[in-house]
Amino acid sequence: MPVRIENQVQWLNYHHLHYFHVIAKEGSIAKAAEKLNMGQPTLSIQLKQLEESLGKNLFERRKQRLFLTEAGKIAFEYADQVFRLGAEMVEVLQDRLQNNRVHVQIGALDSVPKPIISEVVLQAYKQGNCAVSVLEGAGNDLLRELSAHQIDLLLSNYPPNVDFQTVYAKSIAKLDVVVCASAKYKHLRRDFPYSLEGQPFIFPTIHSRLRRDLEHYFSVNGIRVDRIAETQDTSLQKLLGQEGVGLIPIVEVAASDLIREKKLVVLGTLPGIYEEIWLMAANRKIDNPIAAKLMKSFTL
Fold first, then answer.
1. 276: enclosing H helix or E strand
2. Taking the complete model, does pTM exceed 0.70, yes or no?
3. What are phi and psi of 203, to 5 degrees?
4. At how many degrees (to 10) do helices 14-26 and 70-97 cross?
5. How confident is the model at residue 9 (pLDDT cuts 50, 70, 90)?
6. Domain 2-81 and domain 96-172+278-297 have a common topology
């Protein structure tokens, strides 16, 4: 498909650009021809035609392999953006045109309280006609899916790290952390938090900010606790807590149902310790309108 470039005499053939992009990714014409289901001579001719139209050699051959020239590296960077944007356009249009509803895909870490996830979903419906999918999983896996535009939003209890530079985030809540346990531990309310000395705890995993804050808090206050288990899944943490296995540090909203049913009791609030919840999105050329509204206005 030749496309005219305004104010220039040359034409850019997007089929040729696609072939170049595949050759660059595969590292050889032979591998690219196999992937494209084309003959090698035909593919070589297409590449040559692109180079002639640009007036630049895009590859140099060293030790039976193709390596991008400086011009080739620039061309590959632009081609990568062109085809990534094209794939994004197809995904967005397919999602938005299904049943005339905007499809919003929300990822959430296991450690994010379910009432907060529910509130985000409810607010999404208030923003417009949409269908919502909620996916739970591990942090880095969901961040990769967010970066690849396979999900639109991500709820996490820690901000994105430097490896995900296309992802931006905002803090939507800071929630006090309480210590809960089954009723057999309710005597620990007296002289809290020093009554926690030597008690069994089910901690969040080491990757979370809460875990580091808890360890710092207990160290500063000279309280030694017995860490008998750790998990990032708050559902498992609550289950072990109500079974009397140990004490759980958790935001109260995450355990409100069990507290109301008296399956867990609150022993006390840890002063200065809180769980911060983040809402994240990735930079996109074509924004999901519902996700964009939530990123702009949502807070708890």
1. strand 265-282
2. no
3. -95, 160
4. 110
5. very low
6. no
Q: What ranges in the chain are assigned the alpha helix state H?
A: 14-26, 29-36, 40-54, 70-97, 114-127, 139-147, 209-220, 234-242, 256-260, 289-297
DSSP 5: P
Terminal-to-terminal C-alpha distance of the chain: 50
Give the mean model confidence (pLDDT) for residues 157-165: 79
Residue in the block written with tokens 């992009």: 21
Contact in structure between 147 and 164 (CB atoms under 8 Å):
yes
Closest by alpha carbon to 67, among 28, 39, 20, 35? 28
How far is Cα 196 from Cα 193, in angstroms, rounded to an integer? 6
Which CATH class name applies to 96-172+278-297? alpha beta
Strand ranges, E, within 167-264: 167-181, 200-203, 226-230, 248-251
Fill in the amino acid letter for 300: L
Q: How many residues does the chain have?
A: 300
Tokens, residue 39: 């003959």
2-81 topology per CATH = Arc Repressor Mutant, subunit A (1.10.10)
Lowest mean pLDDT among 6-15, 73-82, 252-261, 281-290: 6-15
Indicate if the pLDDT at residue 79 is higher than 60. yes
Q: Looking at the domain that runs over 174-275, which CATH code has it been given?
A: 3.40.190.10
Buried/exposed code over 6-42 (b: 16+ C-beta within 10 A; e: otherwise): eeeeeebbeebbbbbbbbbebeebeebbeebebeeee
Among 42-46, 185-189, 195-199, the least confident range: 42-46
